[in-house]
Troponin I, fast skeletal muscle
Amino acid sequence: FSHLQKKRRAATARRQHLKSAMLQLAVTEIEKETAAKEVEKQNYLAEHCPPLSLPGSMQELQELCKKLHAKIDSVDEERYDTEVKLQKTNKELEDLSQKLFDLRGKFKRPPLRRVRMSADAMLRALLGSKHKVCMDLRANLKQVKKEDTEKEKDLRDVGDWRKNIEEKSGMEGRKKMFEAGE
């Protein structure tokens, strides 16, 4: 059992050593990369931005300002052109990636909403013009006839309660009630 533990410890130690070596290598690569970028930046600035020599007279100074303004304008135009190219390229990339999704058959699912739909409408949507069966669920229900009970007959015979009260009001109504009671 101790033999297995020693092997595990050795494997763990080796893994940790490899991780630390990889991290050290990555750190040195990053340092080299940043140094190379800095050198490249210095070279670009030396090539495109010569050291500024300020002239002595006012007229030469104005000429220098005009040149600098012209340079700024041309750089702004280049920047704008580059931005437009970048936007076009991004749009093309989006279109191509959408075409790729379409070709693969993987579509982004749209957010779905709950829709109340009858069974007929659902079948029509699924089957299209082939759907001819009517799914009226109420048509298949059994018809049940109510039996007339005595209570319901009485209620129907009585009719409107107001008429009944008018008939029984006054002396004539009492007379009728008395005669009916006999």
Observations:
- The two ends are 114 Å apart (CA to CA).
- DSSP finds six helices and no strands in the chain.
- Residues 1-49 form one domain.
